[in-house]
Amino acid sequence: MKNIVYVFLVLSCLFAACAAKKSESSMADTDTLDETTVVDQNNVLAKAQLAPVPTNDLYSNGKVKLIKNVHYRFEVENVKTATENIEAAIKKYPAYISSSNLHLDNPILENKITIRVQSEYFHDLLKEIDLQARFVNFRDVKTDDVSKEFVDLESRLKTKREVEERYTDILRKKAGTIEELLNAEREIGELHEEIEATVSRINYLKEQVSYSTLELEFYQTISQEIASADTVTPRDRFIDALSTGWEGLVTIIVALAYLWPIYILAGIIIIYLKIVRKKIRIQYK
Question: Is the pTM of this model over 0.85?
Answer without folding.
Answer: no
